[in-house]
Amino acid sequence: MATLGYATVGSNDLARAKAFYDALLEVAGLEPLFEHPSGGRVYGRDGAFVFGVLGPYNREPATAGNGTMIGFRCDSRAEVDSIHAKAIALGGRDEGAPGFRAPSFYMSYFRDPDGNKLCAYWVG
């Protein structure tokens, strides 16, 4: 069975985006793995690629996908809270404060400075 291997978002300001994701993903236990040829950066854990912020391959402007969202599974409700707070502190935009969305799904939603929608969630 296939599972999601990694996700990427595009940015028109890679310096700003890398600063945002360096600080945000550190809270999630992800670290920079390498610089991407587009000027972006790839992040992961234990050497495995999980997420990247890139310049678009076609060299057209990056846009946030309408209806596109990337979720980061967290180990606790506290981690969800921490990631959401960090995203807002870094200039992200709140799209739904941390809380239960279903009996066992604790989730928060936010957008990065380029408008990409992200979710931090915990299932317990």
- Structural category is alpha/beta
Number of strands: 8
CATH H-level homologous superfamily name: 2,3-Dihydroxybiphenyl 1,2-Dioxygenase, domain 1
CATH uppermost class? Alpha Beta
The count of domains is 1
For the termini, the CA-CA separation is 23 Å
Rg over C-alpha atoms, rounded to the nearest angstrom: 14 Å
CATH architecture: Roll
Shape field: globular
Task: Return the average pLDDT rounded to an integer.
Answer: 94
Query: How many strands, which pairing sense, and closed or not: the largest β-sheet?
Result: 4 strands, mixed
How are helices and strands ordered from N to C?
Answer: EHEEEEHEEE
Kindly describe this structure.
- The protein is of the alpha/beta class and 124 residues long.
- It has a single domain (7-56, 66-123), classed as 2,3-Dihydroxybiphenyl 1,2-Dioxygenase, domain 1 (Roll), CATH 3.10.180.10.
- 22% of the residues lie in helices and 40% in strands.
- It contains 2 helices and 8 strands, in the order βαββββαβββ.
- The strands form 2 sheets. Strands 1-4-3-2 form a 4-stranded mixed β-sheet, with helices on one face.
- Strand 7 (105-111) and strand 8 form a beta hairpin.
- It is globular and about 45 Å long.
- The mean pLDDT is 94.
